[in-house]
Amino acid sequence: MVQEQFYQKELSCLHKGASLPRGSPLQDLSPMLNPDWLICVGGGLRNSSLPVVLKHPVLIPGKSHIARLLILHYHSVGHPGRQMTEGSLREAGFWITGCKRVVSSVIYHCVVCRKLRGRLVLQRMADLPEERLKPGPPFSQVGVDCFGSWEVVTRRTRGGVAQSKRMGMIFSCLTSRAFHIEVLEELSTSSCINALRRFTALRGKVQVFWSGRGSNFVGVMNYKLFQSYLEKSNTEWKLNPPHAPHMGGAWERLIGVTKRILNGILLETKHRSLTHEMLVTFMAEVMAIVNARPLVPLSSDPEDISFLTPSMLLTQKHRSVEEVVIEDCTSNMYTAQWKMVQILADRFWKQWRLRYLQSLQQRRKRISSERNMAAGDIVLLRDKDVSRNW
């Protein structure tokens, strides 16, 4: 009998009508013997109108094999979670000591439950790439992606208005977190190349472009004239591995911010018909707003009014830097302006090193190492188009 194996002292005391030994794990349950001489829960529900099996369930040691068999029996009906499995055991008149731990263990090793609700295999988040940690000119290391689309009015006729779609192309500096948007007329290779040329004309030479494997970006990579342009400008284009959108999180996050701001601006305008010129203007306003975002948490010190933003580097303007006053328009003016620009740039990179880089030190998720998959492991492959199936 399993109770005799685990609760021999308690069973002997109950037969004699004596108190349980001090330190017994059953003291808080006020155990008693039922008519079948089994240890049951005495508890504090003796005077309730509940059925006897609920008032005085039979005690089952959680470390016994019969406890796991009972849990497997009631869990196999519908494969519910821990609480519902515990409830089924209580309704059947069983009280398993340490029930939560044992039920959780059984459910964890249940093949059907792991198939239906198993977690994906994840590894600890890798260290940040060197491109995000090395100071350099803005837009030297650039992440590229497309987003949208929006309906715009292209022409008006007597029969109504003609509309076409516009997309956005985002350029994110991986170092300074600066941000640039170009409007695309279509999501094609030629339109993307034109946007890239406009971007490089405004922001200067780029060392490395990073992007996903969208058909438009693959087309750009395969376009011979653009390949020669990249070679002449000593620019490299790197594509992320397939099915790895997390590797573009630095610019994917900004796409979400951009959409929220743009939707807010479009809602405030209350224009039903959006023109191409209006969309370009809105995109410029979104760029200004996003580039003015603080890169680090703001200080609670009321006297500290300076904060680090990408626009501080792009525009070389910051309200905490005093304006250099020049009375005479002489050659000294150019020296003073150069010094002011240097002060702003130096201040940005100093705060970038001391505050922004330090904020990247702590991992926010996936902080523990897991065992890597090896040959011979039985796994389930998750597919978006197919429900979990073998």
From TrEMBL:
It holds the Pfam family DUF5641. Residues 133-318 form the Integrase catalytic domain. One of its GO terms (biological process) is DNA integration. InterPro entries: DUF5641, Integrase_cat-core, RNaseH-like_sf, RNaseH_sf. Gene3D superfamilies: Ribonuclease H-like superfamily/Ribonuclease H (3.30.420.10). One of its GO terms (molecular function) is nucleic acid binding. This is Uncharacterized protein LOC110984948. It comes from Acanthaster planci.
